[in-house]
Each structure stands twice: as structure tokens, then as C-alpha cells.
Write a structure and sequence with these properties.
403 residues, single chain, 2 domains, 34% helix, 13 helices, 26% strand, alpha+beta, FAD/NAD(P)-binding domain
Length: 403
């Protein structure tokens, strides 16, 4: 009689584990339980619908630095299954990938549906059973096995993988099995800011800014994007990931300081004074003197510095130039709330990492109980890193069960 390997939650990590386990051991009966009738929805919306599969970082010790939670625990697993292994896995299944200029890796098709189709076809070919609309209502330990009660049946599992992502109901079931859950809080999010300097210019970005949270050690660098609601972009998203717990404690009400140029204020002031000398008769608002600051954003800083839109460079006082330099290098913004990044929702929190054997991604409390992906207290900055955690953890679980 075949042993049963049951996967609760059909996310990226769950499918990856199911496919690889079934291919490694054809004598396993592998079943994925999906609560919805729509599969792999998070994969579908990821990367703006293109699926940011992983990131072109090929050294484990460097890769772990992108994980605010899980850095220490993932170092060993990444030596077993890395970004290069991920690329090879997909390409061997007819999904060519490409590395973009910012090192994010996408399918050449630019469509997340390519990844979904690959999973569904691979699962079918490997003999994996997919049960949709199978809502898991309870999980019980039954001797050395597990009883999974769904809305339609009871299944006895020899091996159980929970890969349900950020799911409060499943976390409660995990707690009932004796595991500790770290309170989940949002990780990747944008900042809501009401400020005249950002009003009516959504879509404008700067390539390299520095952002820090006042009265905190939190600081990041990276591109910034002005949105209808405030600020986003990699710089903000990295800050939200590393500051997830602290910003939650602040109830998402705090002040940030933005250096739009990542240059010292004295350097910017000297440049502005030189501009006043060389273009004394030119109207200041007509042209941004910094390549990285668009004309529309430049106009906002000029007005915020108390400078008339009709002023010429020669008319500017040293005080006005100092104010302008400060706007460019020390803009203070009041953040009042957050917004989800696109349609993606990542949390900090989940199963306490101290209770997991990361050589197998197995529970230290219950043999043959495994966890993979975001159900664990592991999360990363944006750029394909959360998916790499899913692939690595899914691969190791598959090898633990399949071998």
C-alpha cells in the first residue's frame, strides 16, 4: 500500500514539494489540498503578473542577507538548492528564464501563467492528485500519522506538509499541534503620505534615494516611486521589510527623512550656488539641475522652498538656496498608514523557527510533519527572494519525504 504525502495549501512551495517528491518516489501517493477552486493565485499576481521567479544572486552567504527573518536558518538550505538550481529546474521543463538589469529573474514569456502551466503539467505527469475546494478544517496527530479533516472527507497522512502561506486559520491548527506562532504582521508595503510635494505627480521616480525613519535606526537606499497614496519603490519596500515589527508597533504613524539624491547637503548647496552664478538670468523652475530629479518634482521642491515660480537664479538668496538644498536632501514626510504592494501580500510571522529542523524543514515536535514557504517566520525583501525560499524549502521537503 502506497504511503500518503499530503500537502495542505497549494502555494508555490507546496506544488514544488509535491512535484519533486512524486518524481523522486513514484510509490508515494501525493495529494495537494486546495481550499479554493482557483489554483496558484499568488503566483498569478506576483511580479505584476510576470512572476519574479528568483533573483540572480548565486552565493548563499550573500543571498541570505535579503531575508530580515530567516537569514541564519536559510544559509544551510541554500547550499543544497540555490537560484541556479531553480533556473535549471524550470528550463529543464521548457520554461526559459531571463535575468533583467536589476537581477530579477522572470520567465521569457513575461507571464506568470507560464509558471502555473508548468506546475500543473508537471504535477499531472508526476501523478500528483490535486483536490480543489478541499477546505481543511482540522489537523490531528494520530499515533505516527496525521488525520486531515476537510469539508468533504478525512485523509490519513504518513507525511504532512503545511505550505499554506499566511493563513490565520491554519496557524491555529498548527498551534493546536503544539507549535508556537510568531504574531504575523505585514512586511512588504508602501507608505501613505498626504503632502503637497507629492500631490498630482504619481508615477514619478528617482533612481537612488536614501530614506530613514526618524527616531529609529531604520534606513535604506534604493529607487523611490511617488504614487497616488504616497511613496513606494524598492527603497520603501526594503525599509518596510526590515522595519516590519517596529513599524507595526508604531501603528504605521511615523516620520521619514528622504534624501532624493543620496548626496550630502553641503555638496548640493555648493552645486546650487554654482548654478546661480552660471545661469543667473534663467528662470529656476524651467529646468531641473539634477539629472535624477524630474522637472515636475523639481518644481515641487522649488515651491516648497518658498521660491516664486517666476524667480530667476540671480534673485535667490543664500537662505532660499539652503532651503532648496534641504528639500532635496532632508525632506521630512509624515507617514499615516500603509498600503499593500500591488496585489502581493507578504507577512513577517509564522511558525517559530526554533521549532524546525532546517536540514529537512521538519517539525522538531512531530516526525514527518513539514513546513515550507511563508507559513514559517521567514520573509524577504522584494525581488524574487520569497519565491526562492519557497523553492528551496519545497525541494528539501521533497527530498526528505521522497528519499
Amino acid at each position: 500500500m502506497k504511503k500518503k504525502f499530503i500537502i495542505v495549501g497549494g502555494g508555490a512551495a507546496g506544488y514544488f514539494a509535491a512535484i519533486n517528491a512524486a518524481e523522486l518516489n513514484p510509490d508515494l501517493e501525493v495529494i495537494i489540498l486546495e481550499g479554493s477552486n482557483k489554483v496558484l493565485q499568488k503566483v498569478k499576481v506576483s511580479g505584476g503578473g510576470r512572476c519574479n521567479v528568483t533573483h540572480a544572486c548565486f552565493t548563499p552567504n550573500e543571498l541570505v542577507e535579503f531575508y530580515p527573518r530567516g537569514e541564519k536558518e536559510l544559509r544551510g538550505p541554500f547550499h543544497q538548492f540555490m537560484t541556479g538550481d531553480t533556473m535549471e529546474w524550470f528550463e529543464n521543463r521548457g520554461v526559459p528564464l531571463k535575468i533583467e538589469d536589476d537581477n530579477r529573474i522572470f520567465p521569457e514569456s513575461n507571464s506568470s501563467q507560464t509558471i502555473i502551466d508548468c506546475f500543473l503539467e508537471s504535477a499531472k505527469n508526476a501523478g500528483v492528485t490535486l483536490k480543489t475546494s478541499s477546505r481543511v478544517d482540522a489537523i490531528e496527530k494520530n499515533g505516527e500519522k496525521f488525520t486531515i479533516k476537510t469539508n468533504s472527507e478525512e485523509i490519513i497522512a504518513d507525511y504532512l506538509l503545511i505550505a499554506s502561506g499566511s493563513n490565520a486559520k491554519v496557524w491555529n491548527m498548527i498551534e493546536n499541534l503544539g507549535h508556537s506562532i510568531i504574531q504575523p504582521v505585514p512586511s512588504l508595503f508602501t507608505f501613505n503620505i498626504e503632502d503637497s510635494r507629492l500631490k498630482d505627480i504619481p508615477g514619478i521616480s528617482v533612481p537612488k534615494a536614501s530614506v530613514k525613519v526618524l527616531n529609529s535606526k531604520l534606513a535604506e537606499e534604493g529607487p523611490l516611486l511617488i504614487t497616488h497614496w504616497g511613496l513606494s519603490g524598492p527603497g520603501i519596500l526594503k525599509l518596510s521589510a526590515w522595519g516590519a515589527l517596529e513599524l507595526f508597533e508604531k501603528d504605521y504613524n511615523f516620520e521619514i527623512e528622504v534624501n532624493w539624491l543620496s548626496k550630502k547637503q553641503e555638496t548640493v548647496l555648493a552645486f546650487l550656488k554654482k548654478e546661480r552664478e552660471q545661469n543667473s538670468k534663467k528662470q529656476i523652475v524651467l529646468r531641473s539641475v539634477f539629472e535624477d530629479v524630474s522637472k515636475r518634482l523639481w518644481e515641487k521642491f522649488v515651491v516648497a522652498s518658498g521660491i516664486s515660480e517666476t524667480s530667476q537664479w540671480a534673485q535667490l538668496t543664500n537662505v532660499q538656496l539652503e532651503d532648496l538644498a534641504k528639500q532635496l536632501t532632508q525632506s521630512i514626510f509624515k507617514v499615516s498608514g500603509k498600503s499593500t504592494f500591488k496585489d502581493e501580500f507578504v507577512t513577517a510571522g509564522g511558525v517559530d523557527l526554533r521549532e524546525i529542523n532546517f536540514k529537512r524543514f521538519e517539525s522538531k515536535l512531530h516526525p514527518n510533519l513539514f513546513f515550507a514557504g511563508e507559513v514559517l517566520n521567514i520573509d524577504a525583501v522584494t525581488g524574487g527572494f520569497n519565491f526562492q525560499n519557497a523553492w528551496t524549502s519545497g525541494w528539501i521537503v521533497a527530498n526528505s519525504v521522497g528519499n
